[in-house]
Sequence to fold (202 residues):
Amino acid sequence: MTCRTLEEFYHIDGHTFEKQYKEVLSGYRNWEQLSHADDWMLFPENLGSRLAIDETSLSNGELYTFVTNRDACTKECSLVAVVAGTKSEDVIAVLQRIDEESRYTVKEVTLDLSDSMRKIVRTAFPKASRVIDRFHIQKLACDAVQELRIKHRWDAIQQANEEMEEAKQKNEDYLPYRYSNGDTRRELLIRSRYLLFKSADK
Fold:
């Protein structure tokens, strides 16, 4: 619920209330991380044995690196660190503010395939096993299947062109082979982009 919503229900000045909440009620000005919050924030008390590290864009294309506690399941106390940018040196410098003994208790970190992420995990959490995010593996597999499908599609187009030319030279009608669903090999390969990834029970 926003302050603007409270304005409508309680007939107060939403802008003034919003300002008062930020400046006084929330304790924002006395926040211990205020001086560096634009660059990084660290919550070592949220550290757990299973972490995840990833980058995301919050606004205007600005990238941030997030480290989260997987056991918290994105709920309260799940954020361990957030760092502006994706430079491994910057992220490592922030994470190394956590005492070494605590960092050594991390057993597993889920990450993507980038070299910078591997460097961060290897340096900041040297005892942890590195687990590649399954969505990145799935994307690689999907890309490989699509590349193979496209190759077979071009082969099918070439084969169809050759068969049409051969039929033309023999003054015969070209009748391509059709599968049980009525598609030719070329048509099936063109339409199967999403079919290849459809669950067998759907």
